[in-house]
Batch of 2 targets.
Target 1
Amino acid sequence: MDKFVIAGGARLKGAVRVSGSKNAALPIMAACILAQGKTVLKNVPRLFDIEILSEILGKLGVSVKRLPNSDMEIQVIDDSKCVADYDLVSKMRASICVLGPLLAKRHEAKVSLPGGCVIGVRPIDLHIKGLSAFGANITVEHGYVVARAKKLKSAEIYLGGMFGSTVTGTANILMAAVLAEGTTIIENAACEPEVADLAGFLNKMGAKIKGIGTHKLLVKGVRRLKAVTYSIIPDRIEAGTFMVAAAVTNGNITIENCIAEHLTAVIDKLREIGVTVNKKKNSCQVIGTDRIKPVYISTLPYPGFPTDMQAQFCSLLSLADGISVITERVYPDRFMHVAELNRMGANIKKEGESAVIVGVKKLSGAQVIASDLRASAALVLAGLVAEGQTEITRVYHIDRGYEKIEEKFNKLGARIQRKLDKKLIVVEEK
Ligand code: UD1
């Protein structure tokens, strides 16, 4: 298992290219279960999570081949298989996104319940509610969601939960609705760009979805979907992470392959903090500031401030000139990075669903542990600006969602080394 050793203090400068969106690529790959023929996806990032889903699809009779560059070819070979087992699903929650397409195309799905994770409980009640509305019989047996339906019938589905809409839930319902008989209405649908990208892909395959990018989706069912070539949107969270890197190191980074309108809430907060953001056609230039101003942030479903950028902003605001408050309205327990940032000299207190961040003059390098994907990004950002050396263990979390992250940072002037963490292997092998 690898660790990162970061020598802090470099001001990052130059240009970096953002990879394709992980959270768009995952449901789009799952949607290939619905297609007849060879799908070619472009701009698919090379990430651990993508490999896991490729393996799950392989066991479901779907051939997934990597092509040169970031292309991928996907084709259904055998559509008799319906089981996604625990070993793989437990490695990545988003594997639940095979449930909708399996049910719609193969009339049966048995997918292991993903379980909780360090960022919270993460139920799938809305997925089950939505799929049941199509007339499917859904039960939970021995840790598996078992769904069966000879035919899916259109429905009116409200997808609001305690914490707002659901991204993967909307994806699952949408992938079932496209083959359901009649017109389905999905209310309070998630309108994240990744959901819109999936809907765009499905429409290119022949689906009839209206209201893309809004909270109300109208889906007229069709009999079949064809395979197409499709390019995945750039990863807005990777782009946002580089924006914070420019801000926290007082650097000057041009982020290429970046759709600025997917990051409106993030850019708005960066500007309030005092950071300069120059939006261009397919890129964004971000220039840091000598004085980081404190701000208040609440995470919300899109177009609100993304929960996936909360940890990175904790790192940035820990160096602000004053007190900031970040309230987490999507995953109230998503604050595992706070204790680690405090080990680096930050002064952050968790108060219920909020982090109260009292800005400090500097962070100092320390040994810290990455607990989850975005928390690890936050620790890398803190390590970039900390005085001295930071060692981050369990960086496999970051490899789940950021392609060649240390190479990209090092090209901008960072000093990050990936090293084999022998201690961790011994501990984890016990
Ligand atoms: C997706 C993203 C993740 C991001 C999150 C919120 C993927 C692969 N992952 O996760 O990076 O942090 O959106 O933007 O796209 N909920 C329920 N019942 C359900 C489903 C969800 O109560 O059936 C709750 C969740 O616990 C959470 C909130 O709704 O509090 C939002 O979750 P959801 O949008 O479903 O997150 P994911 O799709 O799992």
Target 2
Amino acid sequence: MALTVVSRADDAAALDSRGTPRRVTVLGSTGSVGRSTVDLLLRNPGDFTVEAVTANRNAKALAEQARQLGASFAAVADPAEYGVLKEALSGSGIEVACGAEAVVEAAERPADMVMAGIVGAAGLASTLAAVRRGKIVAFANKETLVCAGGLFMQEVAAHGATLLPVDSEHNAIWQCFDFERVEGIEKITLTCSGGPFREKSVDEMRAATLKQAVAHPVWNMGAKISIDSATLMNKGLEIIEAHHLFRLPSEQIDVVIHPQSVIHGLVTYHDGSVLAHMGTPDMRTPIAYVLGWPCRTAAPMQRLDLVTVGRLTFERPDPVRFPALRLAREALVQGGGAPTVLNAANETAVHAFIEGRIGFLDIVAVVEETLAALPVGALGSLDDVYHIDGEARALAAELAAHRARNHPAADTDRA
Ligand code: NDP
């Protein structure tokens, strides 16, 4: 069997012997994953050329990247930023466009690989467009897989696309996972730093500010995933992501808190062997592996020195302070549109927290209430995904507004 998550055998053969640079498109190039990708592309100019880059609003940074990379096309999702992008790229010969359709167009343009680095379900249409080209998708945008689930994987299979996991835990497991003999695999383990509130009490978490929630102790990431890491919803989303990528049920996907973030993922085999992937916590390692796959791309980050690290520690996640893990597992087992609701409610609640409308503990409470209140059936089509996603966002917004009235910031606003 070929690496089904992950690949078609002929891709591997073709890329092994590639003599020409790989042409890459970076969706979400101005974000955290996007900037790390751009950094690696610029460091290895002989190995890569760039077709397109995209952003939501950050037109200035996008224009600078497009010039540095010699991209052919740059698209900004927010039409209000079109003028800035156009002016910044005037005379460059780089084609510019705006709107959600332009981001999809970027994904559809001819490239050997598309980095799906947009955050949230907003990336679904463009990531699917990349999948439908049947080429390689460097897959970071986990929310798309959580919200569209089996339908997303059906598109991957139907179009013969190759999905390469960028998320550090899934990338680690991919490197240790024997796709030829999956029957020998007992379980996989996703490690988790525990986030900024690993040792905080419920009261401290209730009072947590945005600044505290995004101050991740190990990884340097975008705001949304940093907050997801603080609630541990990120690990919940990753359980669902791993279920689809590695075709394992919830009970074969373990989560262990590992504050040093040196071991990123483990695969346990029936004979007791455990294969683990290690590295310093820098997203450029998994991104470099994906960009060059099946070859290794040179990457500059600090090398792992186990003696300097000294101690590696592990603990179980606390289900009382971090109920998001349970909710994600329940949604996965329930199936159908439940993960879609989980993801949409979480995005809505995180947004409300970022805007100071609800407290930190309200985020997961809103997700739980939305899941409980919204009856969902099977996902028959992508239209169902968009429909359920919309319903869940509307309900979660209402529930968040209700909680906002009891949030101290509401009093401050009124004062
Ligand atoms: P960021 O918030 O840092 O960046 C998001 C990118 O998406 C930016 O380029 C942003 O543009 C763009 N974007 C946001 N909204 C839209 C929209 N509506 N339409 C088009 N583009 C949009 O996110 P991260 O880089 O942290 O995360 C990206 C994805 O990768 C997420 O799914 C995350 O879970 C996953 N991931 C991230 C990791 C990390 O280390 N950061 C690790 C593992 C996975 P603009 O700059 O203009 O706002």
